[in-house]
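Our example copied in:
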Amino acid sequence: MAFMRYRALPQGELMVEEFRAWLAQFDADRDGRISREELQHALRSLNVWFAWWKARGGVRAADANRDGHVAGDDEVARLFAFAQSHLHVKITQLGYY
């Protein structure tokens, strides 16, 4: 089993692009969508307690079409909102987001 090294989430206030780039590194199958398992892996990299629970909540909050993945600008924007309110991540609102 190979271990991958992930970039840490930058400290302080984040730009939307930084959050998106950080999250993209956990897209294991490179399909451009984030699954619950991939989000759980991302949260575990931050040492978040109950990562599976919070990943499930994040996907439920963000997944507008209920396909089990976070994809597209609208769903990613919903995930940003979830991260700000439930994970206490500070993200600068720019442009569309």
User: Anything to note?
Assistant: Residues 58 and 82 are 6 Å apart (CA to CA). Helices lie at 16-24, 36-45, 51-62, 72-86. The longest strand covers residues 14-15.
